[in-house]
Amino acid sequence: MMCEASPAADDNSETPQHQFKTQYNEPLHRLLTDEMWVHILTLCTNIHVRQVCRRFCKLYDIALADKREIATSDAKYVTQYARGQTVALVFQRLYDGSACQTLLWACARYGTADMVFVHTDGFQNVHTEDLNRMLCESAYQGNIAVVQLLLNESRTDPSAKAFDTMVGDDNERFPVQSTDTEELKCQYYLNALSAACEGGHMVVVDLLLADSRVDPTIGDECCALVSASVKGHADVVARLLEQVTVDPSVCENAPIAWASENGHTDVVQLLLRDSRVNPAQRDNHAITWACLNGHVDVAEVLLRDIRVDPSWDGNAIIGALGGAEEDLEVIQLLLQDTCVDPSANENAALINACEGGCIKIMEALLADERVDPSEVPNILASASRHGYTDLVEKLLLDERVDPSGADNLAIKMASQNGHLEVVDRLLNYARVDPCAENNKAVRLACKEGRLAVVDRLLKDTRVDPSSKRNYAIQYASEMGHVSVVDRLLQDCRVDPSDKANCAVRMACWHGHVHVVQRLLQDERVDPSAEANSALRIATDEGHVDVVEMLMRDKKVVDALASEMGAIDITGDLDH
Questions:
Q1: 189: β partners
Q2: Residues contacting 244, CB < 8 A, separation 6+
Q3: Whole-number Å distance between alpha carbons of 460 and 462
Q4: Mean pLDDT, the chain, as a whole number?
Q5: How far is CA 347 from CA 132, 215, 322, 352, 526, in A?
Q6: In the Cβ-directed half-sphere of 449, how many Cα atoms lie within 13 Å?
Q7: Which of 69, 170, 312, 350 satisfies CB 3.0 to 4.6 Å to 284 for a cystine?
Q8: What domains are defined for the chain?
Q9: How much is the average pLDDT of 422-430?
């Protein structure tokens, strides 16, 4: 609907619109659409209108300089400054429902009753749907006067579900400008009472409950009681429970489920006083999520109810809790319940606690005689893989834990991931064999470049870095770990020429010039082996610096000479 502009407003030289026209040139003014004017004129007078216009012009100038399409709104900027009052000229200039959405929202949130009524011309030009939206927003914000004014408007329906087109948090909500259906699907429907309950405004709640048109049971999972329970407004919950039509077990006991999940102990206690409430419904959702989120007070209240089963679904609760240190109190609380088996789900709790590095939870679980760490073969390996030194020590002190379990997997994992302290602790136990699986621990450490771990392992006389035909130095050369290569070459058992000088060939293939240089310093290395394979590989891969280094090696030069020009190195390099 389009409204004609007031002649008086157009003739007024002091209007914001006139100030804008005189402040800036005509071409720029013509760029402003009616929607842009709406957003400019909904700003409050906390700052001078001329400053507001200047701010918007900067936005448009930037858009023009970048040759982009000028945005029709800057809603966040509007919401930042829309405080106290709006401009009546907007409704004289334009009203079509969507274009004035920001204005309507600003009225609902910040306006006084008189201002809203005057600036909307007694609501005569406001669509019914927008009236309901304004009511929801003013109810959510606790704007009592505006709520009362809107309730007195005959076209307002306080029981209607108004599509929530506001986004952002409680302090910075602003209208959605998109009309994209998919984007709007992420929003939800509210009615005025649900909005007031979500905002926790008791006076507004009482105003709405006193209106015969308001039904507190409407809304399913967005109903008033659920909204209040989710946010933890105990006083609002108590008031709603006084209504005979309100069922606290609505939507399969959604109120207590959400209150428990969010840690609202007082709301949970209020709901449990009603015999219709079943805290075990929804597969014990209430206790499950109270525990998962570490709400120990809520968990204590729920566990006093005999219907609550903390061991439901094979103790999935305690199994999931093991990964969070802050949930120690909840773990201790659950362990006191005779229904709970901490070893359930194949010791899931112990496994999760170990994976999360939660030593206090591990101590609590291991202190329970029902928990046997030996039933989890890789429990020590898991702690070792992550480098949890304190956990490793704790497990090693338990006689039931075999540090050499799974073919010494613990020291292999610690070596591969470079956890020196863990490797050192494990080597203090005679049962740990660092040379298990053909010295795999040292090979893994060499491949990953864990110099400190390699050095520690080589100090153990049982470790042989030349096992499996010197794979250790070949891995280190392939991966370019020159410091590891240097440490291995200091061990007389290591032969860098093994497997037809595989080490230098792998280094040449990957272009690790520093590794090649270090290997060539060892007389046992022959870079000309396999018909100058190292040179051919480096040439094919385009590693010029490696080729140049090889061409300075006497063995390579002699081999080339003996081949009588079989390879035209210069041509290959140019190619």
A1: 163
A2: none
A3: 5
A4: 78
A5: 54, 49, 10, 9, 55
A6: 8
A7: 312
A8: 94-155+183-246 (1.25.40.20), 377-460 (1.25.40.20), 465-566 (1.25.40.20)
A9: 97
